[in-house]
Structure prediction request, 561 residues.
Amino acid sequence: MTNLTVVSVKNLHHSYGEKSVLKGLDFSLQAGRVYGFLGANGAGKTTLINLLLGRLKASQGSIEVLGNKAGSAAAKAKVGAMLQIGSLPANLTVIEQLNLFASYYKSPMSVSKALRLSDLNAHENTQFSKLSGGLKQRLLFAIAIIGDPQLVFLDEPSLAMDVNARQQMWQTIRQLKAQGKTVVLTTHYMEEAEALSDELFILHKGKIVAQSSPSELSHSMQMSEVSFASDLSEEAITALLPDWQWQVVAGKATTQCKAPSMLLKQAFAQGLSCDLLSVKPSSLEQTFISLTETAEHEDTTSANSTSDKSAKEQAA
Amino acid sequence: MSSLTLHSLKQEAWCDTKSVFRSLGFVIPALAFPCAFYLFFGVAMGNEKTSSYLLINYIIFGVMGPALFNFGVNVATEREQGLLALKQLSPMPASQYLMGKTFTALVFSTLIFVLLSSFAVVFANVSMSFLQWLQLYALALFGTLPFCMLGLVMGLSFSAKAAPALVNLIYLPISMLSGLWIPITMFPEVMQWFAWALPSYHLSQLGLSIVEMHQGFTLSWHLLGVALFTLPCGFIATKKYNSMK
Prediction:
């Protein structure tokens, strides 16, 4: 199953009325891998998931899911999903809900396995209304995998989950991957995306601005995080080293830079002792911020140049 | 029907029924309302003739409520909370979800028929042949369907907050204007004509024909009246369900 294309997206555009939400996406997803989609609120992640699930019809472009049209009966039989919305009948127990959803599929996972994988064994006879927020999320996750799908969409799956439940879910996602299944994950938790994803897509205003493995993504930005102990205030350090943006928290000064050696040379020249010095590659979170800021800057520059050009044309 | 579909359909119907019957706040009023009305107007204040007349009308009134509310209010809530979206993502056909809900409404119709008939026999000495009871039960089941369809249209059209108020706004006036509480012959002529547009009036007439108390119009007109209400509702509901993502 590995190297088999499970999702193929070509020139995908989507608009809500006048508002363009996705702007020409092209990508494919392979079997047996975990894909993370990152983006700020409104970047288009949920719209993309809804299009891949066939809940929305694309304004333009094509989507193929497991060789079928997105949302077709054949695709539905092989796809599982955990959406941001999703409530279940309040008065039915965990096991009743799982039995119900399992009955929709030809070859579902056994209910006992789904309970185990979502760590819900102790709650199988509890009604949905009596579950905590985290347990409800776990049940929705169990429902997403009960059909034993080849492709699983998880839209913000670990929201409201405690640390143990999140770790359990991560383990299950890794197991699904090991079985050759593909997982598409959207999340705001960078550590989750980094820990689970083989490949990350960073969406910004409806465009893919980066697509790579988490480590490659961090390296591609060639950014480093430099920090050292300091008694100085943020303003004082900025005055001494004005080419970088500094943050001082609890006596620790931190900045992101492309050339740490140059920064350190200047710091020593300014007489800073730089005790407890640390230089490491930027975190995924910092990479994400840098990438989206760059994309935002390019958008603004492009918009400005377009408006300048049209103003000149009008003047001419 | 494949064994998978049958198994899935049984699960759907059983789960919906269990879920609804565990909500006592829904079950008790749905059953108590028609029973209390019948015991008061049909038994305590009635005679042998009015007891039979009101038995039929209160059975129609009784089956309307759970069908309208289980579809109108519960579908609106399930749609808004995302349950419908989860079900639409599965390979389960839409018809199965609706059949599950219809089964619940039919269980309520059966309970209402049994309760009201028992009161009629025990307290009001209403007497009918076995065939007449059977016809009345069949009518109670058949009469559930137009209201399932109307409830479905409402559930797919209105928000979970608006649906209960709107269902109440429709349920009680329809009951009155159909002559379920007072014979429509006591209404002004314009209102009598209005009753012809309501399925509950036609169902009431079909029921009353079993005990030969109907107004005397041909039964096929009443069947046509029910069909002309149910089919467009079914068409609108299908359109709405399919366009809803």
Observations:
- The mean pLDDT of chain B is 92.
